[in-house]
Amino acid sequence: MSNSKKTLPPDSINNPTRRSFLTKGALLATGGVMSLAMAPTQAAPVTINVPETVTGGRTRFHQIYDVIVVGSGFAGLAAALEAKSHGLSVLVIEKMAVFGGNSTINGGAFAVAGSPQQKEAGIQDSPELMYQDMLKAGRGLNHRDILHVLVNGTQEAYEFTLKHGVRYKPFVQHFGGHSVPRTLQTVESSGAGIIMPMRQSAQKLGVIFKSRCKFESFIQDNQQTVVGIEVKENYYFPDENSGLQKNYGARYGVIMCSGGFSNDLRFRMIQDPQLVSDLDTTNHQGATAEGILAMLKIGATPVQLDLIQLGPWSSPDEKGFGNVSQFNTIAGYPMGIMVDARTGKRFTNELADRKAREDAILAQRDEQGKPVYPICFTNKEGAKNAQSLPAALKYQVAWQFDTLKQLADHFALPYENLQKEVDEYNTAVANGSGDRLGKDVSRAISLAEGPYFAVRVWPKVHYTMGGVQINPNAQVLNSLTGNPIQGLYAAGEVTGGPHGASRLGSCAVADGLVLGRIAGAHVATQTANPLFSTSDSDNA
Amino acid sequence: MSNSKKTLPPDSINNPTRRSFLTKGALLATGGVMSLAMAPTQAAPVTINVPETVTGGRTRFHQIYDVIVVGSGFAGLAAALEAKSHGLSVLVIEKMAVFGGNSTINGGAFAVAGSPQQKEAGIQDSPELMYQDMLKAGRGLNHRDILHVLVNGTQEAYEFTLKHGVRYKPFVQHFGGHSVPRTLQTVESSGAGIIMPMRQSAQKLGVIFKSRCKFESFIQDNQQTVVGIEVKENYYFPDENSGLQKNYGARYGVIMCSGGFSNDLRFRMIQDPQLVSDLDTTNHQGATAEGILAMLKIGATPVQLDLIQLGPWSSPDEKGFGNVSQFNTIAGYPMGIMVDARTGKRFTNELADRKAREDAILAQRDEQGKPVYPICFTNKEGAKNAQSLPAALKYQVAWQFDTLKQLADHFALPYENLQKEVDEYNTAVANGSGDRLGKDVSRAISLAEGPYFAVRVWPKVHYTMGGVQINPNAQVLNSLTGNPIQGLYAAGEVTGGPHGASRLGSCAVADGLVLGRIAGAHVATQTANPLFSTSDSDNA
Known about the structure:
Two copies of one chain form a homodimer.
Chain A lengths: L30 H8 L24 E8 L3 H12 L4 E4 L7 H5 L3 E3 L4 H5 L6 H11 L6 H9 L1 H10 L19 E3 L6 H14 L2 E3 L3 E7 L5 E8 L10 E13 L8 H7 L18 H8 L4 E2 L4 E4 L12 H12 L1 E3 L14 H9 L12 E5 L9 H6 L3 E4 L2 H7 L4 H17 L20 E5 L3 E5 L2 E2 L6 E3 L6 E7 L16 H17 L17
Parallel strand pairs in A: 1-2, 1-8, 2-5, 8-18
Antiparallel strand pairs in A: 3-4, 6-7, 7-8, 9-16, 10-15, 11-12, 12-14, 13-14, 17-18
């Protein structure tokens, strides 16, 4: 019985282990390849003509790059730009038709410790303070080494984005769980405001982009070094029968920036059976687990996969991230209040960390366990920066009222309670402190005057804190030895550890950009040690 | 370049993927093997003489069994006995010098829903009630399919243990988080009271046992079916350089019963960085993660690995499980009270589930964050069933006092507070209900009279709720497909899911015995489909 490819069963297509007899020096077997060894590493990719079947410890690379980045979100683009800036040839693949993944539909909010905007506003901040905030929100479960790297890299990452054309609003915002305002936001109020200019910049610099190109599995040599990946080109998500299988080689490393799995119903329910199908998610359809699972299968270390965050600011009245999430983040929570729909009373610090708010909101249920959607509102002054409000009003997922009485009547809230609650809150705002629920009201506004803008709130599956373990060089670690898996990097949501039990808002952008850059920079230090040699002969 | 074994780097010894070219039909290549195909499956294992090196898709099995069980605790012995009772040849391997793992040092407490002892005591119970209790303690994170199987199997598993010689105390106990008393306990007050008779019974029936035999990795065929394991015989824990490598074949399946990882400092800190080295564990030294990790590496699904339980009844004054844990479980908590060492006031329901108690105790810290060990005590009447008390007194990890005043003085507790607390508690006990902290005092006793027995309390790392995912047949599931990995079973603490966020006391024995039996029974249904055929020729 031979071991030729055609004898493999159909389901083995996802299994990289059958590559394990690939040997160093046997990768590039034809004469045409030898000239490649002479080419500079920036050379355009070349097709290698080796036999069609996998035999005798030889594989076929249809293309070879210095670095392959899987995923085109914040982490992927940061890694690609950084590697390219060091002169490497870089391929970015994206399984979806459009680039950017969740990053393009996120709010474009980026926590930077020590930004010029903070200095201008007289806000004292430091990486150490950000570290403490994230550790507190993470309930101590954070991986401190990665967290340390993350908070120390935000300023540089901010400058890096400016260099690549990203534009931010001139003011800094106060997101829940942060002890000071430190959140910058793109002028577009969207992550697309980061993704689009960074991708344009990368393309100009010569980074190769392929969409509809799905990562399938890793190609490893005999020493388990990752030397490439198997992909499907012309893949049409989610049709697993679509696409043409190809092998890409990576001279210095593969960087996995394939994101989280909030939209992978099967895998998220294995981790938390409560996250059932009728719980909506803010994530795009492609947010699935295959990238993480492929890494686990070659020995990566799983970290805290069941720590899954529900976004505590979304609306049950619209699908996905929607327009309400941004309204609440920018206006409703910092500049307004949220009340129990039965009592008209506030029940949580609207600026607590996400987990605290998520838990408080999910506890709002009637005796049968059915959700009682809380009402969040602010007034015209509070909503002035909420760019998504017109759309939310248009789609009737937000409502405008001239008076509190009208607001109360619309939602069948007890008006007297509500008025009393607003009065009490306004008193704390006027004093600049002393809020009953511990909210920092030093930058809040009085809600005495309308008109008011109100939304209903219910959490959605938003972010998977867990993923694979990396070291501070963004190298993926082997679960048995704790040592790096040679040739394999990861950054962004596909990794686990920095956020612990609960990620703070605007720290995903920070995570992706900072660790993505580190991955791209570290892989560029490996040029003296290619993972395979193009000059070895087949019989070496 | 050949793929012969000697070219593999040293670190690949833990890597099963290099076996991936092993093909069905190529396992047993010599003429001497053919006679094995004729032998009944109960035949004693035979050494197969095939070439020393792994070449051309051939491996060497030094021994072949119908079933190989990895681990000799509750799950392992239950699986072995069940498989043996169906006529299969069974090997049980244990890496430590002694058999039984953690199971021998646990308290021998077994939750059975519907035991004769319950009926005798007039206690109404059902699998459904146990299911609800475990789901509540598990905070809804439980895998319902496995939980269902678990609670429905306790009665039969109880009878199974009786058949194999286990003896229980004639009364039923009330452990924390269970809504009724349903915990049986061996007369020895130890899991050794289950392990020893079951192992003797298994040996009599012909199960082969090998200690100092460490599981190293799986051997898979081309279709990723698990057909055997690589072990180290004569292994001296924890010396990884000791032992002689051997390959064992398993005709119908390998059952992983290798336990949890509470004593694997590196891996447990990856999952929960707060579980640092100076936090003690109740577990034996061999409770490490390599079994789980090896399964993940062949595609098993990780479940909730960061859900790690601290035992809320152990003592900071002794190492390991110790004598105090049993005292608190049997006497201190159900028959006594636990107080804050600064105030003399109770601070938690002593019969709450483990997580609730663990969290409450761990919150007992001074302003610098240092532990303030709570004091738990009962009186002579309450301690009458606590067999470990004499040892605890002898080793001065428990103390005896004639009066409450003496007890208070010894621990520098405010006596008046303490007396008031005891009086209040006694009132609730006299009423049979109405405890301030919600404790079920219907079976509690008055603490009006001494002498008193007291201990100090601090949690220790006790149980890893997470592990690999199995289906209700105890088959290990592939993370990508959700389908069983052919030839691979798992049961007991190495699996994840049934307990969710917090395992209830005495449910580990239930889990191990019930799911172990299911694994052993299911593998016995596979005799028509051996994982490899001994009659295939090398060139088929």
